[in-house]
Amino acid sequence: VHEHWYESSVVKARRNFFVYTPPGYTRSNKKYPVLYLLQGAGGTAEDWTRTGRANVIYDNLIAAGKVVPAVIVMPDGQIQHSLATNSMSHQDTMVLLTADLIQDVIPLVEHNYRVSDLPKDRAIAGLSAGANQAMAIGLNHPEIFSQIGSFSGGNMFQYISLGRYADFLSNPEASKKGLRLAWLSVGKDDHGVNNIKAFSNFLGQHEIKHSLTFMSGAHIWPVWRRSLR
Questions:
Q1: pLDDT digits (tens, 9 = 90+) for 128-163
Q2: By three-state DSSP, how is residue 147 classified?
Q3: Residue of 11, 5, 17 lying closest to 83 (CA atoms)
Q4: How far is Cα 167 from Cα 1, in angstroms, rounded to an integer?
Q5: DSSP reduced 3-state for 181
Q6: In the 8-state DSSP scheme, what is residue 105?
Q7: Residues 200-208: contacts with CB under 8 Å, at least 24 apart
């Protein structure tokens, strides 16, 4: 797991992200698929390795032959940390986060790591607030991502009316064609279960290929680790 610091041209601040490379990466010449993985509200870019154990989970899955080896990029989804302000609206932070990811982080990753630059080899996922972010970025940008993972993404349905999915709704056919899968998960005891069910129905109305998985547990890390797996 490598930590990278960069000067964000979008946020105008120094930010960081973490990159997991799979076993055998340094001995290989091939290009790897890549997963962009976002943390929850109030967290940091290292949450998915320190608490989520994403690197350990993926090492074990590779060793068991259950997944294709991939690079995992864990950006900082909390723009407020960089701006030292809590006064921005959710929508404003989404606009900045999306631009920072697309204009700064992805180009840096593709310059420094042997990863594919094809949409079919890019996925985006996240937990809680990061699940909201991943779903919005993925739906709005099927030209960049072909798969989305949303783990316990409460309030996603409410954000529809706030314009978070405006690009998607302006051309849902693009996402219908470009997305291979939008996968949603949630703990059965999570406070956001009904909201996520409503969002699943919203995806179905627009004929987006997706699935919704219910797990035991609430809004907690064991659910998110199982979701990543």
A1: 999 999 999 999 999 999 999 999 997 889 888 888
A2: strand
A3: 11
A4: 34
A5: strand
A6: I
A7: 202/157, 202/160, 206/168, 206/172, 206/175, 206/176, 207/172, 207/176, 208/139, 208/172, 208/175, 208/176, 208/179, 208/182
